[in-house]
# Entry
Amino acid sequence: MEIELLIVPDCPHVSAAAALIRTAVADTGVKATVSETVIATDDEARQRGFTGSPTILVNGSDPFAQSGAPVALSCRLYSTPGGLRGVPDLRDLRQALKRVAAG
# Structure
């Protein structure tokens, strides 16, 4: 499994997102390669369909994609049981990894 963390420069949620990914991978036991990519220009954002930082791609797909979300070099917020946050809920990321691993 390939997990890619897309971020903008100086994203305040990079550390939390990276820790979340490490925890979800460890919890689920999936074998994953994790990489980080900085999206620095509007052109890069358009090419990648980037809707905000941090974005977590699992095998190239965004499990938290929202239909109609605009491409943007900005922070991204996720709906969680505790309200809007800068990273998705751990339970939701675990479920996404399990879905992808199951095929």
Remarks:
- The mean pLDDT is 96.
- The longest strand covers residues 2-7.
- Residues 33 and 98 are 15 Å apart (CA to CA).
